[in-house]
Design goal:
- This protein is α/β, with parallel strands linked by helices.
- The chain has a single domain, classed as 3-Layer(aba) Sandwich (Rossmann fold).
- It has six helices and eleven strands.
- The strands form two sheets. Strands 7-8-9-3-10-11 form a six-stranded mixed β-sheet. Strands 2-1-4-5-6 form a five-stranded antiparallel β-sheet, covered by helices on one side.
- It binds adenosine-5'-diphosphate and magnesium ion.
- Magnesium ion (MG) binds next to helix 1.
- The site of magnesium ion (MG) has 2 residues, from helix 1.
- InterPro entries: AAA+_ATPase (IPR003593), ABC_transporter-like_ATP-bd (IPR003439), ABC_transporter-like_CS (IPR017871), ABC_transpr_LolD-like (IPR015854), MacB-like_ATP-bd (IPR017911), P-loop_NTPase (IPR027417).
- Keywords: ATP-binding, Cell membrane, Membrane, Nucleotide-binding, Transport.
- This is Putative ABC transport system ATP-binding protein.
- It holds the Pfam family ABC_tran.
Length: 238
């Protein structure tokens, strides 16, 4: 069988919590394909399974059945699961959360450089990589600032830099624009699109944010644990 080489491929994924009478089937039939360089939206009402799907995608929890490959590697296949989930998360997945969760006593550069340092890159190289991303995200002038000195939009850009710094093939963003005004929310989406293309990253954005929904070319709706794909309003790039 040919293995898709990059991006995200999910087939017939399900997730059950608990067993017996109290079991909850949070995901019933999830199918999703995200190409390298693509940003897709994931939307759905409360309780529909968004967080459960993000946890499976992020290798934070194990699915119950189905198949999932990330960045060309099979992570889960009907009960079989990759052994070293920590290494997998470190190498394959970048997380961008709503609250940026920056480390308050490290400056902006070291907040971004910490992950590659922990992965064993020499400090100088890790900082150089952090600065390159801060430049790409237009916050290089804040490189020596502490997180508390940043605006909300700047914090979110730093959080995006941190999500990208280990060059993961997959980025999972949970409500990344929720605290931002329209202009900054659209700027964050533009940046995510540019980063996806520049680094061949597959990005999933979970959102309720009406402001950014028109920016997606493709969306997945999830209802009662079942995904439905639909075309978004944004035009495909030439
Ligand atoms: N740890 C858990 N144990 C039992 N049920 C859970 C757990 N987490 C989520 N659920 C249930 O799974 C369903 C989907 O929840 P969730 O994935 O959090 O949806 P969403 O993020 O879209 O609100 C809900 O019915 C929820 O109550
Ligand atoms: Mg949730």
């Amino acid at each position: 069988m040919t293995e898709p080489h990059h991006g995200i491929h999910i087939q017939g994924l399900s997730k059950r919590y608990g067993s017996g009478d109290t079991a909850v089937l949070a995901l019933k039939d999830v199918n999703m394909q995200v190409a390298p360089g693509e940003v897709v939206g994931l939307i759905g009402p409360s309780g529909s399974g968004k967080s459960s799907l993000l946890k499976c995608l992020g290798a934070v929890t194990d699915p119950t059945a189905g198949r999932m490959t990330l960045g060309g590697q099979t992570i889960y296949d009907n009960g079989w699961q990759v052994r070293d989930l920590r290494a997998l998360r470190r190498d394959k997945i970048g997380f961008v959360f709503q609250a940026p969760y920056l480390i308050p006593f490290l400056d902006v550069t070291d907040n971004v450089a910490l992950l590659p340092m922990l992965a064993g890159l020499p400090n100088g190289q890790a900082r150089a990589r952090a600065l390159e991303l801060l430049r790409a995200l237009d916050v290089q002038h804040r490189a020596r600032a502490m997180p508390a000195q940043l605006s909300g939009g700047e914090q979110q850009r730093v959080a995006i830099a941190r999500g990208l710094v280990n060059r993961p093939p997959v980025i999972l963003a949970d409500e990344p624009t929720a605290p931002l005004d329209s202009e900054r929310a659209l700027a964050v989406m533009r940046i995510l699109g540019e980063m996806a293309r520049a680094y061949h990253t597959a990005i999933v954005v979970v959102t309720h944010d009406e402001k950014i929904i028109p920016t997606f070319r493709r969306l997945y709706h999830i209802r009662d644990g079942v995904t439905h794909e639909e075309a978004g309003q944004a035009r495909p790039l030439a």
